[in-house]
Amino acid sequence: MTVPLSLRVPSRDADQPPPPEPGVLAGALGRLEDGGGAPPGRADAELLLHARDTDLDRLLAVAGALRDEGLRGAGRPGVITYSRKVFVPLTHLCQDRCHYCIFVQTPGKLAKAGISPYMSADEVLEVARQGAALGCKEALLTLGDRPENRWPVARQWLDDHGYASTLDYVGHMARLILDETGLLPHLNPGVMSWAELQRLKPVGPSMGMMLETTSSRLWTEKGEAHFGSPDKDPALRLRVIEDAGRSRIPFTTGVLLGIGENYAERVDSILALRDAHARHGHVQEVIVQNFRAKSATAMMGAADLGTQEYAAAVAVTRVLLGPGMRVQAPPNLTDAAELQLLVRAGIDDWGGVSPLTPDHVNPERPWPHIEDLARLTAEGGYALRERLTTHPHYLREARAGADWIDDRLRDRVLAQADDYGLARHDALLGEFPSSAPHKGEFPALDGGRRLGALLSDVRSDPRGADDAAWVELLGADGADLEDLTALADQVRRERVGDAVTYAVNRNIDASLGLPPERVAELAAEAVALGATEVCAQGVPPADQGADAYLDLARAVKRGGPGLHLHAFRPAELADGAARAGLPLADWLAELRAAGVDTVPGTGARILDDRVRDLLTGGTDIPADRWVELVAAAHTAGLRSTATIVYGHVESARDQVRHLRTLARVQDATGGFTELIPMPWLPTESPVPVPGARVATPRESRALHAVARLLLAGRIDHVQAAWTKLGMRGAQRVLAGGADDLGGVLLDGVLDPDAGPEQGRELTVADVTRLAAELGRPVRQRTTTYEQVR
What we know:
Number of strands: 18
Structural class: alpha/beta
Shape: globular
């Protein structure tokens, strides 16, 4: 087969800098050796990728020592892990055209071979059952990326079998595998949205997607490896990795080396993964995969990544990521005689190895027998132990109450893990630590008679309960928590009925300073998509003056005359009045005349100045000023939401005082439409907050229940902030006092990045499914909770 020159990927070394002078590389190695384990800088990391021969030996020594330090810190010294799996290729169709891939097939080739576009449920179960009989614990579901976007035959198959999308089919097959075989699905279906990750979390104790590279030129330039592959846009893949972190999903990712990227791009890719993990803590392993040329592909003439070059890249990955990260190298992509080099380079995991199914992505490279892999690992001085698809420390944290595993799946996963978090049947050598007992954020109630009395008092006279009683209820756990949330749910039903309400809206980030013409276009698109509300928040650029607020409001009304404009937080109200040089009351009248209908009551955080200063570095408006501004908006006829941000440095007493303040404002103005409790997320904090905790599901459930009861008769609606809680977290609080999901946050297509929470969007089907699992109906509402007709 002759490969057209236009499709040939340039030589891997075409864009590489020349090898550094020996003294320059020696300097980088010396700094690494003398650095006490500190990661090298970007420039030194690029230099270290050139290490070969004796220089490589020095690099491997540092990387290996870091790996050993990490294993000791993890409580498993001398242990390298693997997962015993079956490989389930649900479909070989894909919308991408990667120039090195042999996994993907065309419909014509599949039809000629007598292969269906998708594996049937029976075929999937047959593979899974055979794997379970051989002791496998993991079912790796892999497939092409959204083939229905490219191939009509894929869309037709899905329609004929009743599936909305390929990812919908992935979820159904994962559930089938769980229920019928007990294997734990590891989902690797390519690019997923935030909502799709949330939908799959109940059936996927871990997921994954290779970053491969941050090199955008390999995607944009004709003839490069990812040209013509829509889902290989590095920005898109990095967004998926971020969304997996926001969704608290143990996530496997990695890099593919030797596809045309240069050394600087290799370093950039590793640093991007390091940064994502630093924000979310969710990257359970980083795979360093070497390119292997395959026949009948556009890159079949490209040279395989050299062994020493590969080992140097693995070692640099280790020194950049540090001792705490699990670093994996696929054992079938390196000759057995050279695996020791990868052990020396700092790997501590071999990934999934199957006793049954081939590596369908690299079928020419068979898996080593697990017994042989154990022997080769032992020759390097390490013991091979089996893990589950979710890595051990996530399982230990899940056992202690963390929400890495969906609560509906947690017991099934933990049943297969020992106390350390490795696969249960594997005998361990030495002592491994068991999970520490979970300690709540607040003291738990003693329960029994005391809780019953408190709940009885609250039920009969919620306004008569004192602060001490509410503080105690915020500490409810176990059966006490179930009683508290059941009472809150009963009060919710009595006050507002059973419907889970939602609004169809889109966000616009005012700080972007979009021209009015663009804002009007976005508003018109929102109307076309069925929105009833536009929410605008953020301080416009200073050089746009006070008119920026008014221009945005007028543009929204011009583009969508029937839209409700929910705009400008209390701090932004103050900023606009100052820019305009007007008294606050006059400025609020100007905003109303321009088209603002209600205002977001965000920025309340905790209404205590000590806490507010810690959360914002002293840049926020004082608590009294927030109260003054929101009350003034109410007086001017602008109703607002009320908010509380919890789960950081505040106490239960601070939470109660905050709710009491909101109640006083409501008694005076009647202007709050709803309360939105939002867990604090460190990744969205404007400043680091030393000593901050992260809210647990227990705290979220207790706070929403207490808020419902304490504010009963004052603020009737309590919202589940799904962008902060996730779909399952929102569902839990809806079962314990909350009644509303807020807005679905349409992105649209004109400018999806115009909203501050872009990429996080619910569909009406998501809302309906979520409510149906609670046995409740749904109802679309307006911003002020009127019926949408």
